[in-house]
Task: structure prediction
Amino acid sequence: MRVLGIDCGSQITGFGIIDSDQQRHHLVVSGAIRLQPKKLFSEKLLDIHREIDQLINTYGPEILAVEDQFYLSNFKSVLKLGQVKGAVILTAARAGIPIVEYSPLAIKSAVTGYGRAEKSQVQTMVEKLLRLAAPPEPLDASDALAVAICHIHTSATQTRMQKAALSAVTIRLGGDPC
Result:
């Protein structure tokens, strides 16, 4: 499975692509899209679209994982982040890539085991899970990788649950569970 994780931001949008067999994870690429502060916001959205589109075309991810809605006290910031997320989702949807969303709590829990972990704790666990020589930089990139890891872990759990349910049904019906 190849997962593209995105950490949406109106100034910096982090990205990370991971290959995984659901047991071992391998970093393909990570980084950040840094937006020019003096550009119009519409131009920034177009830059995000172009960069994400290029990542999709270059690396061929099978799924896009993005952070679900979150709450900020500044309405203007929430609106801008929603627009960035919309540009990301639209780009993936146009490329025919399925999109999944995870809450910040679910992402942190999947990566660190604690839903209220600090960004530095998430970064350290991403480094360990991907067996990297150094922490992924910037923090936006490690957050994007955490979103991808969250999807991989969630997907693996769902697969195990489906197999267990199928096995239980097969046993009840008197069939061979294998």
Observations:
- DSSP finds five helices and five strands in the chain.
- The mean pLDDT is 91.
- The CA atoms of residues 153 and 167 lie 21 Å apart.
- The two ends are 24 Å apart (CA to CA).
